[in-house]
Write a structure and sequence with these properties.
Protein name: Kynurenine 3-monooxygenase
Bound molecules: flavin-adenine dinucleotide
Shape: globular
CATH superfamily of the largest domain: FAD/NAD(P)-binding domain
Main location: mitochondrion
Largest sheet: 8 strands, mixed
Family: Belongs to the aromatic-ring hydroxylase family. KMO subfamily.
Number of strands: 22
Strand order of the largest sheet: 6-5-16-17-18-13-19-22
EC number: 1.14.13.9
Structural class: alpha+beta
Organism: Dimargaris verticillata
């Protein structure tokens, strides 16, 4: 068992994207931070398993970037410099025809970034603080929440390691052990939904131009989509001029493709232009050798137990990846939590012996107020983005090619350009602002009502004008 220091102690379970950034926030406020992760340190480990169950790259947008900006340390600048801006979707039709749809009317973009590199930058930033200690190869097994104790199994020795702290932060991802511990001590409402679609990642290699230089095989400043109504493939650019493609498809359809011949026939029918881009051998190798991932959505509440534990990121709200918001939302969780802690002026120093009891109990009740407020504030936004992510799968794989969608997008974009703060498209609110997710949905519904009424009004006036014209003509 370890002893308390003069600083409040926090134990962060999970050194993934959210855990690593959270450790920077805690360190900056002066907490004594211990970070534990079951995996080996990605900075020294050659173990490719670190990336195996997750996407190789991901899109970071305004919410994520703002959370990085808030810590300073040049983190946001570093990420943006190494990221590839994607200004819109590039839709690939069946004939290979490509059409671009801008994300925002003011040139906004989302940014493609390598997951592992982002994780390493965050871990380096966290370790630059002397009050942060990282422990890799430590798996959380159980917690005694009332005592603030977390029990780990040390992979190297098989021994138990117990740490006692003021606060346990669960950032241990979709299959969170912290969440399970929380369930035992709170009346947690919980739902978990697997969608029937799996995903598999493939690579479009760089190609050589006439000068022998490596170049992108497609426009790198777009997120490429091959929408095929009941399934789709997407591709995001990487810095090494390759693209990472992700094929999303019903599990049964994956299973029905059992031979290289049937795979090529499938691609020939649905993604003919992608065969040349990926290459026949790479395609068959990637499809049969790369892991398949399942996709699920998790909603739960509360996110905390008294003043002892809080869960953040995928541990609290895992969503399907179709809005590119999982990590962005997780980063925003941290920002929201710290806004509340700062507003309530939760201190990080342990009172000196003598005044300990009164000050200590005040601290605990203040911390509990902060965590109560966090669950209350964040839950409706987490639910909203989980729902939006689910809805966006239909938009990406099907709606983007329907005339109704394209008409509404044109209309909304035009109105947004004219009245930037009155009409804001939903995608813009989610990806390029920090409007709380649940408010974005409410506003989108309001705008839909206005647009529908407006269009009906235009329809009535046009019909009346046409009828008047016809009457004049007949006279
Ligand atoms: P994780 O990244 O899962 O990290 C959890 C950490 O906890 C891991 O390091 C794990 O080893 C550790 N851990 C787990 N259990 C224990 C234990 N018992 N003890 C100790 N350590 C433990 N989001 C976006 O914002 N943009 C995108 O473009 C995007 N694309 C995606 C594409 C795909 C295909 C998928 C699947 C997800 C995508 N996401 C995207 C979502 C994003 O990956 C997650 O939201 C994000 O990784 C969540 O971070 P996290 O730190 O909460 O969890």
């Amino acid at each position: 068992m370890e002893e308390y220091t003069a600083q409040r102690r926090v134990c962060i379970v999970g050194a993934g994207l959210v855990g690593a950034l959270a450790s920077v926030y805690f360190a900056q406020r002066g907490w004594h931070v211990d970070v534990f992760d079951t995996r080996p340190d990605p900075r020294v480990s050659q173990d490719s398993a670190h990336n195996q169950q997750r996407s190789i790259n991901l899109a970071i947008s305004t919410r994520g970037i703002t959370a990085l900006k808030q810590v300073g340390l040049g983190l946001a600048e570093e990420v943006l410099q190494a990221a590839i801006p994607m200004h819109g979707r590039m839709i690939h039709g069946l004939t290979g025809h490509q059409s671009s749809q801008a994300y925002g009317v003011f040139g906004q973009c989302i940014n493609s970034f390598e997951r592992k590199r982002l994780n390493i930058s965050l871990l380096d930033a966290a370790e630059s603080f002397s009050n942060v200690t990282m422990h890799f190869g430590y798996t959380l097994r159980a917690c005694d929440l009332d005592q603030g104790a977390a029990k780990f199994e040390v992979r190297a020795t098989g021994q138990e390691y117990v740490v006692t702290v003021d606060l346990i932060v669960g950032a241990d991802g979709a299959y969170s052990t912290c969440r399970r511990q929380l369930m035992r001590r709170t009346r947690m409402d919980y739902s978990q939904t697997y969608i029937s679609h799996d995903y598999c990642e493939l690579t479009i290699p760089a190609r050589q131009n006439e000068h022998g230089e490596q170049e992108y095989a497609m426009d790198p400043n777009h997120l490429h989509i091959w929408p095929r109504h009941t399934f789709m493939m997407i591709a995001l650019p990487n810095k090494d001029r390759t693209f990472t493609c992700t094929l999303f498809m019903p599990k049964e359809q994956f299973e029905a493709i059992a031979t290289p011949e049937s795979l090529l026939a499938f691609y020939q029918t649905h993604f003919p232009d992608a065969i040349a881009l990926i290459g026949r051998d790479q395609l068959t190798h990637g499809f049969f050798a790369n892991p398949r991932g399942a996709l699920m959505s998790v909603k739960c509440t509360p996110y905390h137990y008294q003043d002892k534990m809080v869960i953040l990121g995928d541990a609290a709200h895992c969503m399907v990846p179709f809005y590119g918001q999982g990590m962005n939302c997780g980063f925003e969780d941290i920002q929201v939590l710290f806004r509340i802690l700062d507003e309530l002026q939760v201190t990080t120093t342990v009172p000196p012996p003598g005044q300990a009891k009164a000050v200590d109990s005040q601290w605990h009740s203040q911390m509990q107020r902060a965590l109560d407020c966090y669950t209350r504030t964040r839950h409706r936004d987490a639910v909203a983005i989980c729902d939006l992510a689910m809805y966006n799968y239909i938009e990406m794989r099907s709606s983007v090619v329907s005339w109704q969608y394209l008409f509404r997008k044109k209309l909304e974009d035009g109105l947004h350009k004219l009245f930037p703060s009155l009409i804001i498209p939903l995608y813009t609110m989610v990806s390029f602002t920090q409007i709380p997710y649940h408010k974005a949905i409410e506003r989108h519904e309001r705008q839909t009502r206005w647009l529908t009424r407006g269009l009906m009004g235009v329809g009535v006036v046009t019909t009346a004008a046409l009828a008047a014209l016809v009457r004049c003509y007949r006279k």
